[in-house]
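Posting this for the archive.
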Amino acid sequence: VQLQASGGGWVQTGDSLRLSCASSGRPVGGYAVSWFRQAPGKEREFVAGSSWSGAQILYADSVEGRFTISRDYGKSTQYLDMKDLKPEDTAVYYCAADIKSPTLSSYVYPYEYWGQGTLVTVSS
């Protein structure tokens, strides 16, 4: 699985932004895709994730109600719609695919495939 993340940029507090994650090389059966982020000097943290079917969706408490994860199966693309952005949302955002786990995970280790990351900067 190859992942290509895009859509990051510089925005102001309260603005919205959409991140995209284009995937290719999908294995039979599909896979879960999640978004993580890593701020300078901090560990990579889970932001949001979706199982292949979309039946299971998880959000970090810090983004619940502000971020929405979705998929366009025809385009093999996953999206992270972010609204009401805050300075603490500033980070490099990564999309990641887990093709083995039976359930959606919010931990880093099950995700074998990662996009290159896209930087989101929110100014106050």
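The chain is about 0% helix and 50% strand. The longest strand covers residues 17-24.
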